[in-house]
Amino acid sequence: MEDKLKKLVSAGNKENRTKWAHEWQGQGKKVVGVLDNMVPEEVIYAAGMLPWRIQGTWQEDVSRAMIYRMPQTSAFLNHVLQSVLEGELDFLDGMVYSNRDEDFVRFRDYWESLSKTRLVYLIEVPIMDSELTRRRFAAKIREFIGVIEEFGKAKIDDKSLRDAVAVYDKGRALLRKMYELRKRELPPVSGGEALAITIAATVMPRDEFNKELEGLLPYLEKRKANVSHTRPRVLLSSDLLDNPAYVDLVEETGCLVAMDDMDTGSRYFWEMVDGGSEDPAYALAKRYLKSRLPRMVDWQEQAEQLMQWTREFHTDGVLDLTETYDHTREFRRPFLEHRLKEAGIPEASFERDYHLSNVGQLRTRIGAFLEMLESKTAG
Amino acid sequence: MNLLEKLVERNERRLKKIDENPDPTKLWSNRLGYEIDRDHYRELLEAWQQGKPLLPWFPSAILARAMGALHMQLETFVDQFPEESPRYYQAVRSMGLPENVCDTMVLAVAAVKLGDLPAPSLISLCPRVPCRLWIYYMKILAEYFNVPQFEIDPPHEYSEESIKYLAGQLGELIEFAERNVPGIKYDQDRHLELLEAEGAWFGYANKEWELRKRIPLPVDSRDTFRQPFRRGPDLIDDTAKLLEFWRQRTEEIEERAARGVGREERLRVLWIWGRPVYADPMNVLEPRGVSVPAVVLPPTATFGGKFPISDDGKELGRQFSPLEHEASNWLSQDMLQRPRRGGHGWAEDIIWVCQDLKCDAIVYYQVVGCLHMGSPAKLVADMAERELGVPTLILAGREMEATFLPIPEFESRLAEFIDMVLAQKGRG
User: Fold this and answer.
1) Is B256 inside any structural domain?
2) To 10 degrees, what angle do helices A158-180 and A206-222 make?
3) Band of the pLDDT at B152, cuts 50, 70, 90?
4) Overall number of domains in chain B
5) B285 and B406 share a domain?
6) Residue B308: band (very low, low, confident or very high) from pLDDT cuts 50, 70, 90
7) Cβ-based interface (< 8 Å): residues of A facing B
8) What angle, rounded to 10 degrees, do the helices at B30-50 and B3-20 form?
9) What ipTM does the predicted assembly reach?
């Protein structure tokens, strides 16, 4: 079983992540790249295509991308564009993304010019969750269904969409079960392993992923993660962090990452779709508007979610690793810091690049924060 | 002295200077323009002192006035005081706000925090510009100053459905504001009057656009940089005075164009997106005989002076309600629409402007952190070169201060570019 677990943990890494996509295409089916969390993947899956999460290159050099990109822009997108220019994403049949932020909106310009994908589609997602915006977003999802149907020459009816939702919800439920186990003093998986498993879900056919994780859960019930520290327990908060090495770095510095607040981690699967809804597009809209991304203006709810996780997962503090120039997250930071301070939850915020870099400096800063947490816990 | 007091005083000085020593090379209608500016700042100052509602970046400036409130475009006050930026940046850092976003935006928050500008009475989380970062800027203002906030979700295409969707939200916004902000009361008759004035203003602005095609340019290029289009019908309570300014200005430019008045032009440059207020581009351009017929700048929500046609519903074959008319004007604003079409659409529009205004070159000033409009710079440059043979200089810097682009570097790069284009055209 340990081998099976290792296989799943490594499914999303650079060497393996395209394996399922190529197999899928080998069966004559299409693979659609998904750039962010706001895209309802169920629609793509319902059309018999594989939604495949795009990552950027993890190499440091993005000089080719910077010919096109402005300074002080998203490092994630710089690395994705570098991948596009190096042909790493040429195999994709299409690319779908949302208006997650301005950088994502503008990114289309260069994707359209420089990549080989036949479909480039932006799904417009409201920035707030209300009855009005749910209805509007549901209409946008129906438009998206039409686009995918035409692109894939496939019909998506309510039944096929409900079936896809059921598969995705099953995956979400399994991931939540795994996360529940992280509440233990010594959890079955490290923070890095948990992130890697969640990332595996985004590159594998979902039913295959579900089968793998379902088979592993009884083993995880008994497993004890090989971690160097069980205290302090930290909640790691970030977005667009898809390199588990960052989480390993935090844990190696002297703590246990017991929970995360990341769009590539917990927030990717936490909310479920109302499978009993008469209108699956509306049900999807409702679910995706609860993404708790800083781009949504429900900052109070985002803070409350974070504090709830802090309590439930018994963490001693929140470590924020914001990617440099993630502007919406930067804007939210003072608000969140204030709320956490009011709640008496220790917090530290450090900037990081997309690729693993500045390791020494980060280790020093994180170490200082962990020392503070330790002294607080001891005191 | 706060910024509004300083602005009143500054415009008083300008008026005194014009009265005492009029410059025959400048438009005489500028006098009325400065008077309107002074009145605008004075109205805001009085409203601040009397606790009247003040709304920053409201979805519609004229709607704010129709609701008995005043609209304040905080960044356009701040960007007149580049010398204050070190103090404001210090406040930005102490507030924990990001430094590498549009500087006028984040420095405006600092100016409010330091008491140099009034705090808002209500925040609408949806500015009438395409960039979504503005929403978070508004959100910060709302959270920091603990004022009521109302969220609007703007659609991005022009359609009857979008108009209804947006108009419905504007109606809810009015109800929310009336419930939560003392002094707010929507007056539909006043709104209709202002919509009519806005239509007239669009008409004058579009006429001026036509006049700017003339060679020589019948207005001073410095006037282009001063963004006369900021003087919309919401600016002061006396709408008739505003329209009189636009009538005088348009007639004067028309008359100058007929007489061929203007500086000798060796080159026409289209200036896009940002401009350093800490430096004066005309110091380089003017001695080289360069004119600038249009500056496509934030946050005017216009396309360098080209305005949409105000549509009261005729195109869809029915009479709009005032809120639908408002929504229609909003959705047809070029800047809201065009960037959403993608950078290629934006580049195509720039090509059109270049051709329409007979420009020989483009200066694309990327404001650091302005993701929405800065990002397509290379796309525009490539398309302009390919389709028109028009070269583009891309510069990246802040608007308020020189950290990213010191003045000597700015001037030397601009001068080298202009000299190169002049030499290429055999006009050197």
Assistant:
1) no
2) 20
3) confident
4) 2
5) yes
6) low
7) 67-73, 99, 101-103, 105-110, 112-113, 124, 126-128, 130, 132-133, 136, 295, 297, 299, 325, 327-328, 330-335, 337
8) 150
9) 0.86
